[in-house]
Amino acid sequence: MRMDGVTHASDRRAGIGKAAISASGGIHLGRIVPDDEFLSCRSSVRRFRRGEVIAGAGVLIDMFARVHTGVVSASTMLPDGREFIVEIIPKSGLIGELEVLRRQTLSLEYRAASNCELHFFEGRLLRDMYASDPCFREKVFSRALARISELELRIIANAASSLQSRLASTLLRLSAVYGKDAANSGDELIISQNDLAATLPASREKVNQCLRRLREGKIIDGGQGKIRILNRKALEACANGAVSVK
Predict the structure, then answer these.
(1) Of 29, 53, 23, 21, which Cα lies nearest the Cα of 120?
(2) Which of 20, 113, 226, 243 is a Cys-bridge partner for 71, taking CB atoms 3.0 to 4.6 Å apart?
(3) What distance in Å separates the CA atoms of residue 153 and residue 143, rounded to the nearest whole number?
(4) Predicted TM-score of the model (pTM)
C-alpha cells in the first residue's frame, strides 16, 4: 500500500517518504491534545485530492494523522462485496491513534472524501502522552466507549428504520460533520451518490429514488456530488419517521 500526496522536505528529513499510516474507526481525539502541541512536533504535511487513497487496510506503521482541512472517509468491504463507509472523519479528527497505541495494523481503508490536507506525526508522541498522563488515558477510553455506543445506536436504528428515514438521519449526521469546518455551515454536503449509498449502506438506485423524493418535496437540492439541505425541520421529521415523502 502506498500513500499519495505532497511530500515535503520535512518528510525526507524524517525518513517518511510515502509511508502509510494505520487507523481505527476514527475516534476523534483532536480536542484532547491542544493543537499547538501537535504543530510543534509536525513531521509532514500532505494534501490529497478527492477520491485518493490515504491508507489501505492491513498495514502496520508508526504514524498517525490529523485532518487539517477537508474530510476523510473510513470504509471496509461487506461479505457481498459492497463497500461500507463506516465513518466520515471531519476537520480536527485523528486517524491511526488507536493502532499507534496498540501497535496494530490498519483495519479500514481511508480515502479523501473531499480535497483535504493532513498533518502526520510520529507514533511515539502519542505513546509518550498516554504513558505519562493518566487524564489523557482516561479520555482515550471515554472516547472509545462513546464511539462504540454511537455505532450500536446506528446499527439498531438502521435495522428498525425505513431507507428514507435512514437517509435523512445520515444527511443530518453528515451535516454535523461538515459543520465542524468554519468555512461550511453544514447545509451543503460534498458527497457522491456512490459514497452516500455506501454510508447507509444501500443500493445506489434506491438511494437515488429517496433523494429524488426529497428534492421534489423541496427538502434538499443539489447535484454533481453536492447535496444542499433546504428544510432542516422537514428532514428531521423524515429522520424520526414522523413524515414520509412520497
Answers:
(1) 21
(2) 113
(3) 15
(4) 0.74
